[in-house]
Every structure is written in C-alpha cells, then in structure tokens.
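Morning run. Coffee first, then this:
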Amino acid sequence: MVLRQTLLAASGSDRLRTLVAGTRLTRGVVDRFVAGERAEDAVRAAGELAEYDLLSSIDHLGEDADHPARTQDAVKGYVRLLRLLDDTGLTSWAEVSVKPTAVGLGLGPEGEALAVDNLSRICDTAAEVGTTVTVDMEAARHVPATLRVVARLRARHPWVGCVLQSYLRRTEGDTAAMAAEPGARVRLCKGAYAPERGSAYTGRREVDAAFVRSLRRLMTGSAYPMVATHDSRLIDIATTLARRYGRTYDDFEYQMLYGARPTEQRRLASLGARVRVYVPYGTDWYGYLVRRVAERPANAAFAARQVLTRY
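And here it is:
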C-alpha cells in the first residue's frame, strides 16, 4: 500500500517526469504502450489493430484542466480525432475515451455543467460519424459527479459508455444500478487512482473478488459488459460467466491496454470474441504509465518484459 501511494504521488511530479523521460528504458516503455504524440499516430494504431479484428478505444492523454479554455482545446482535439477516424473509414472499429476532468469536471461549482456541455459536443460528433464515446472514471472524489454526467449524456445518447472500478467499495452498488439499464455499455476495471481512506479495497484478493462480484452482476443483467483486464484468471472467469448466463461473443467484450499481451488479444479475437484495445496518445504519457504501475506494482516488471519480448 505504501509503495502504491508513493507511485501515485510520483505520477503528478513534473520533476520526476523530466528526470525519467529521456532514459532509454523509459523511451522503450513509452513507445510500446503509447501510440504516439499525435492524433494521426493513434488513428494509424487503430488501423493496424483492425487488421487483426481488434477494436479500439482512443484516449487523448491529459486530465485536470485548470481553465475553461483548456477544455475547449480538448473538445476540438476529440472532434478532430473523430473526423480523422471517419476519413479513414475506421469509425466501425474505433471509439474514443474521454476523461471528464479534461473537459471541465474539476473546475469548481460550474465544472459539472461544463463537462456535460463539452462531452455532449463530442458525443454529437461521434453520433454523426457513426461511433461511440466512453467516459473514463478517475479519482474517487469525482465518481458521483461522473455518474451524474453519464446519466445526463445517456438521455440523448444511450450508447455512452461508463467505467467502474472494482477496488472502490461503492462500485458493487453502482454496478447493480447500471446492470439494470438495457444495453448500457459498462467497462469494468480494477482501478488506478488513490482512493480516500476507507473507500476502497486494498488487497489484491479483495479487489479481484470485488471485480468478480461486479462482473457477475453485469453478466446476469441487461447491460453490455466490457471486461477490462489482462489477468488470465479473470479472463477465464469472464468467459465462463458469459457462457453460464447465455451470452454470446456479441453480447460482451474483453478490453486490454495497447501494447499489453498482444498475442492474447489476437487469440481471443481469432475465436470470434470482441476485443477492444485502449489506445492512448499524446505528450502527457508520464502520469498514465506511472498509474498503470501503481495499480499493481508488479506491472513494472511486466512493462520491462513487454519491451524485451513480444508474446
């Protein structure tokens, strides 16, 4: 737990980012797990994934906008990205993921309304070009507001996806509510942000058990589960639960990170499963990568192994 808190603190350090950014190993990890710095790089990656029948969810890295003008830049960037996907014929293969604080959620009392307005513009463009949007989940303090934002967006665009994090104790209740929404797209992951004291499970077994409980609710409900994990055991459990409750490969999907377990991604896709790869791009890669390690410190060795091997 102490190591995790230390890593999460490091994710926000500009000094440490500068220190590690130029090292050879760091560059190798970034190149492996981040598609590039430009929208064109992400679109290229999505096209390459589509050749293996893999779907994408593209995220422009960056969050916690500190001024309304910054949120407008984010919206313009996503609109441009969606237009690029349309121009390249990839809208049936790729959607976008958006962090609500990147479009204003954290900007005081008016932030929630601003986030709704900005996300609505992104969703309107997505609908126009024929794809979808998933709203990412961030730190625990933003969860209630994010769920309210998603509910408002779904009133107009029922296909808007939402992320739930199994390590938060409240998630089982949130999962039960969303599982009852027909077709609601729900990405279930373990979680990668520092929670408030007492609000989260801290042991790996506890988090995994909570993941399975929420997953079972999704599989037995009316929602569309998006199972975000690289854990072979949890992937097997998801497959078993889907079969037990009569879901076909069209009724749920697996999700994994760009650069992580590519052979497993392709294996699942070759079986006919829907597999979506989370494709991040942009210059703000440091916090993203450190949080992936903090989510599970063993990921540090995993990342190094991924750079050296292609399995």
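The radius of gyration is 18 Å. Good start to the day.
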